[in-house]
Design a protein that fits this description.
Structural class: mainly alpha
């Protein structure tokens, strides 16, 4: 354990560690590792990136549907432009449906992660986790926000992940 000084709330690292007993951090008879916790927390930003890619794809299909213009002639013909527009509209509808499902999943995941983070007894540790895993900030950006050095912020991050108890991981 590192020599972390007491925070402004009066809870030092050792006291926080004692308060968070190991009983809530077991999965199948073994401890949930920090790596597993970080992977769980990182799902939120991964899902956000996936949603952003889907939005870009939908916009490309929308641009394709709008840019296709029919050629009017007196001769009857099969398929052509109307089929391409119909295909583009179908792809847009499929992407929108999948996008709605992913957004719902993201909202539920954020609720789960927030409920895990709220269980941490120290405000600074909660802020570190929110900045990194919800807002997508780097350690350096988080350090600027909370007023500590990047090195100390890394320590706080490690402590926060160690203290974190995530009921969804225990399933």
């Amino acid at each position: 354990m590192w020599p972390i000084r007491c925070s402004t709330t009066g809870l030092c690292a050792r006291r926080i560690m004692r308060r968070c007993a190991l009983n809530g951090r077991r999965k199948g008879g073994r401890l949930v590792t920090s790596k597993e916790k970080k992977q769980y927390l990182g799902q939120y930003l991964t899902l956000e990136a996936q949603i952003n890619r889907m939005i870009v794809e939908r916009d490309r299909w929308m641009a394709l549907a709008v840019s296709v213009s029919p050629v009017l002639s007196g001769m009857p013909h099969l398929g052509g432009v109307s089929d391409r527009v119909l295909d583009a509209v179908q792809h847009i509808a499929d992407i929108d449906a999948e996008l709605d499902r992913e957004i719902d999943r993201k909202v539920n995941l954020r609720r789960e992660i927030e409920s895990c983070i709220i269980g941490i007894p120290d405000d600074k540790l909660r802020d570190v986790l929110r900045n990194i895993y919800i807002d997508g900030k780097t350690i350096e950006e988080t350090a600027d926000c909370i007023g500590y050095s990047a090195r100390h912020t890394r320590r706080l991050h490690a402590l926060a992940v160690n203290v974190l108890v995530c009921p969804p991981l225990l399933k």
